[in-house]
C-alpha cells in the first residue's frame, strides 16, 4: 500500500472535481483529483455549456483552448409543440460577450480543463483511481482509500463523484428529494439531409423528444414513464417518429435497443453537504434533472464557490501556518449556505417541468391551428418569456464569478 499526502483530495473527475482542482492549484493549493475511469469518455453525459460557464472560462484565460474544441454554439432555440414551432429561447438578449449556450462533448471539456490544470505543479490528476471509502480520526475525515489499496491523507476530502457517490455513502449522507415519474432514453442519430432547425424539444400527445445538435449528429432523448419499457426497437422507433416526423429518414441508425441508454432521472439534495474534513459538491450534493441541461453548470458554480472560500484557509504549506480545522469546517458550511438556495430554486422549476412533460400537458398548451386567444397570448407573452428563460437557463440563480 502506498500513502500519499495532499491538502485537498477530490473524488471524481467530472466538471465539479476537475474545475475545483484547477482553481485550487492556480492558488498554489496542493490537490489530488481521483477519477475511477481510465479516460473521460462516456457518451450520453450532459454536454450543455451555458454562458455563466463560458464567462468563467474566459476569466481563466482558456477561451482559445475552448474555441479550438469542436462545438455547436446556439444563440436561439425553438420548441415544437403539437406541430407548432415556437421561438422559445433567445440568448442574444443576455449581456455580451457570451450570448449563447454551446454543446460540447463533456470529455472534450474535461480534457481541456485537465490540460490547464497540468500546467500547475500542485495539480495531480490520477486516472483509474477508484475511491473505496474514507478514513477518519476522532470523528474527522482524514483522507480516502482506493480500491487498489492506496491511501491518500488530506486536510479536506471533496466528494465530486456524482449522484451515486461512494464518498457520500461513506460519510453516511442520504439525499432527500421528491419522486420524479419520468426517465430519459438517450440515443443518437445522424443529422437529416434536410436541415433541421435548432430545436430543443418536440412535444405531442405521443410524448416528448429532446434533440440536441452536435457538430456531426443529434443526441436525442425520449421521455418515458419510469415503468415504461419497449419490447422491440421497432416500437421505440415508431414512438420517436410519431413525435418527430423529421427524424424518420435517420431513425434506422438506432439498430437495436442496445443503442438506447436509460437515465434514471433524479432530483434530490443533501440536507447537509459537509462534515468535519469533508464536503460534497455537484451531483454528490444535489442531483439535477436533465431539464434545461444545467447539471454541468451548477456543478461548476459549486466548484467556484468552494474555491473562493477554501483558498483563504488552504494556503500552500510552508508559507503560513496550516489553517485550523474550525476555519476549514466554517468554509465548507459557507459553500452550502451560498449554493443551497440557488440549487433548490432550479430544482423546483425542474420538478414543475416534469409534471408538464410527464403528464403530456405540454402538448395541450397550443392547439393546431392555434385559437385566436392562443395567438394573442403567444404574441404578447413570448417576447417576455424568451428573455426570462434565457436568463434562468443561461445563468441560473446566483451565478458565481472568480
TrEMBL record:
Keywords: Oxidoreductase. The keyword Oxidoreductase applies. SUPFAM superfamilies: FAD/NAD(P)-binding domain. Residues 5-319 form the FAD-binding domain. Transmembrane segments: none annotated. Pfam families: FAD_binding_3. This is FAD-dependent oxidoreductase. It comes from Microbacterium horticulturae.
Amino acid at each position: 500500500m502506498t500513502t500519499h499526502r495532499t491538502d485537498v483530495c477530490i473524488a471524481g473527475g467530472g466538471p465539479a472535481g476537475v474545475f475545483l482542482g484547477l482553481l485550487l492549484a492556480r492558488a498554489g493549493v496542493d490537490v489530488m483529483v481521483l477519477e475511477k475511469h481510465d479516460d473521460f469518455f462516456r457518451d450520453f453525459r450532459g454536454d450543455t455549456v451555458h454562458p455563466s460557464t463560458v464567462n468563467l472560462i474566459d476569466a481563466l484565460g482558456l477561451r482559445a483552448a475552448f474555441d479550438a474544441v469542436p462545438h455547436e454554439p446556439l444563440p436561439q432555440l425553438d420548441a415544437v409543440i403539437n406541430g407548432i414551432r415556437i421561438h422559445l429561447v433567445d440568448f442574444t438578449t443576455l449581456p455580451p460577450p457570451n450570448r449563447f449556450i454551446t454543446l460540447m462533448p463533456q470529455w472534450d471539456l474535461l480534457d481541456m480543463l485537465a490540460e490547464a490544470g497540468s500546467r500547475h505543479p500542485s495539480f495531480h490528476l490520477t486516472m483509474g483511481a477508484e475511491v473505496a471509502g474514507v478514513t477518519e480520526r476522532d470523528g474527522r475525515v482524514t483522507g480516502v482509500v482506493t480500491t487498489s489499496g492506496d491511501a491518500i491523507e488530506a486536510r479536506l476530502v471533496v466528494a465530486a463523484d456524482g449522484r451515486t457517490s461512494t464518498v457520500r455513502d461513506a460519510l453516511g449522507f442520504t439525499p432527500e428529494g421528491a419522486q420524479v415519474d419520468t426517465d430519459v432514453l438517450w440515443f443518437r442519430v445522424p443529422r437529416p439531409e434536410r436541415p433541421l432547425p435548432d430545436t430543443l424539444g418536440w412535444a405531442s400527445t405521443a410524448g416528448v423528444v429532446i434533440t440536441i445538435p452536435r457538430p456531426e449528429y443529434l443526441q436525442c432523448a425520449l421521455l418515458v414513464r419510469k415503468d415504461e419499457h419497449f419490447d422491440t426497437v421497432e416500437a421505440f422507433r415508431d414512438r420517436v417518429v410519431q413525435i418527430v416526423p423529421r427524424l424518420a429518414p435517420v431513425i434506422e441508425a438506432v439498430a437495436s435497443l442496445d443503442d438506447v441508454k436509460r437515465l434514471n432521472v433524479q432530483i434530490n439534495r443533501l440536507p447537509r453537504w459537509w462534515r468535519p474534513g469533508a464536503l460534497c459538491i455537484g451531483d454528490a450534493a444535489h442531483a439535477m434533472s436533465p431539464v434545461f441541461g444545467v447539471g454541468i453548470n451548477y456543478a461548476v458554480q459549486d466548484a467556484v464557490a468552494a474555491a473562493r472560500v477554501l483558498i483563504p484557509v488552504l494556503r500552500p504549506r510552508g508559507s503560513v501556518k496550516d489553517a485550523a480545522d474550525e476555519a476549514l469546517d466554517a468554509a465548507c458550511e459557507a459553500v452550502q449556505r451560498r449554493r443551497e438556495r440557488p440549487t433548490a430554486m432550479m430544482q423546483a422549476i425542474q420538478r414543475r417541468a416534469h409534471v408538464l412533460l410527464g403528464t403530456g400537458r405540454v402538448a395541450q398548451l397550443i392547439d393546431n391551428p392555434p385559437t385566436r386567444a392562443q395567438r394573442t397570448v403567444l404574441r404578447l407573452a413570448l417576447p417576455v418569456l424568451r428573455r426570462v428563460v434565457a436568463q434562468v437557463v443561461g445563468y441560473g440563480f446566483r451565478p458565481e464569478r472568480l
